[in-house]
Design a protein that fits this description.
By secondary structure, the chain is of the alpha+beta class. It contains eight helices and 30 strands. A five-stranded antiparallel β-sheet has the order 1-10-11-12-13, with no helix packed on it.
């Protein structure tokens, strides 16, 4: 009972930190103050399952997990979308945007040359953006508790899903819900874990966490989310102040932590088919480039832009400590597998043609100038989340 009371006292933080309901207005003074900690905060779904079953149309009889693994992240009988996703995003051209510092991070999504940047300062407040690239509906998702950014194709079994924030967590990771069947989906894997679609999988669209400065240089014709999304919320501030500096995650995570790496160290978590492999930031920082193979597919991991700000460090993201950028690509171009090395502090060169490449996988000079590397599905999750969801995966070490 004491543990449950601690949750109810502390977890109002989640709603306040992430923007609350759609009618919540957050002032600058509120954003810069230190939020209360949700330490040791856990309430299991079975404690409130009857209430949820009455309010939700989710089929709780269909599940791929033990329901005891789910925690209530927001103390309400129906917490769905208390953290409001963005369903009608507004954008501006890169050349018209002046509110982001070059070192601020965001999610890059590029579909058929339509490149868009989703600042983490906005995603920490909403966690999901339901968007469309022409006739391709996508959900750009971000879980700040795990630092997982994953983009999904919302087309599933002839239905276009609208994804929202369920208010539930599993291993501290965002559990999403769809408005069509009320099934619950694990954000880090894209798997439906409860409901009509339980056991199904969403298709992943390539995306990466990168610096704003790198994005606008590489994609001058691209677009970026505006600060005016219709919620009256200010952006640019981190509601999870100094979270990434902790020695352990918040109490939403109750599992054992593999001590090979610090719990909140980031990894480049690559998934190829049903094979997963992690590249810890501390390892690739030294290597700068990793030429590897995962499930028989060539993979190259670039490390660069060491000045990329940590969106989960200090209250003001632009002033946060540097964390760097780690991105995974398919190194095959025109049927030829390229092998890369680092050149200086910010560029890369392939051994086959001598072409020079940027951290965003663009050939900037040489025989292949103008070519692009395709993103391999990956995330930059914290180590504790990686080892919880992919416990049997390989970990690259230099």
């Amino acid at each position: 009972m004491k543990r449950h009371l601690l949750l109810l006292a502390g977890l109002a933080f989640v709603v306040a930190a992430c923007g609350g309901t759609a009618n919540t207005t957050t002032t600058t003074s509120e954003q810069t103050s230190e939020p209360s900690s949700p330490e040791d905060s856990t309430v299991s779904v079975p404690d409130r399952l009857r209430t949820m079953q009455a309010a939700w149309d989710t089929d709780f009889s269909k599940t791929t997990i033990d329901l005891n693994e789910l925690l209530v992240g927001i103390p309400a009988s129906d917490p769905r979308d208390a953290i409001p996703p963005i369903d009608n995003p507004t954008f501006e051209q890169v050349t018209s945007s002046d509110w982001l510092a070059d070192r601020e991070p965001g999610v890059l999504v590029d579909i058929d040359g339509d490149a868009r940047f989703y600042p983490l300062s906005i995603l920490t407040r909403h966690e999901i953006v339901n968007d469309e690239f022409g006739d391709v509906p996508v959900a750009v998702t971000y879980c700040p508790l795990c630092n997982t950014a994953v983009t999904f194709d919302r087309r599933f079994q002839d239905v276009v899903l609208r994804l929202g924030v369920s208010g539930l967590l599993r291993n501290s990771d965002l559990v999403m819900w769809d408005s069509e069947t009320h099934s619950l989906w694990q954000q880090i894997t894209g798997e439906a874990i409860v409901g009509e679609y339980a056991g199904s999988q969403l298709d992943v669209v390539g995306s990466a966490i990168v610096r704003w400065g790198d994005f606008k240089t590489t994609h001058p014709e691209g677009q970026v989310l505006t600060r005016n999304q219709g919620f009256g919320t200010g952006y640019g501030f981190n509601p999870y102040e100094f979270y990434s500096s902790r020695s352990e995650p918040y109490g939403f995570f109750q599992g054992e932590i593999d001590d090979r790496y610090p719990a909140l160290e980031r990894v480049v978590g690559v998934t190829v088919g049903d094979v997963d492999k992690a590249y810890p930031f501390s390892e690739i920082t030294e290597a700068r480039v990793v030429n590897d193979t995962v499930a028989g597919q060539p993979v190259v991991v670039f490390w660069g832009a060491a000045d990329t700000a940590d969106a989960l460090d200090s209250g003001e993201i632009a002033a946060a400590v540097a964390i760097g950028t780690g991105v995974a690509y398919n190194p095959v171009v025109d049927g030829r597998t390229l092998t890369f090395e680092a050149v200086g502090d910010t560029e890369f060169r392939d051994a086959e043609t001598g072409s020079t490449w940027s951290i965003l996988g663009q050939a900037t000079a040489g025989e292949l100038e103008g070519s692009s590397l395709e993103l391999v599905p990956h995330r930059n999750e914290f180590w504790f989340a990686w080892q919880a969801f992919f416990p049997d995966s390989d970990v690259w070490s230099g």
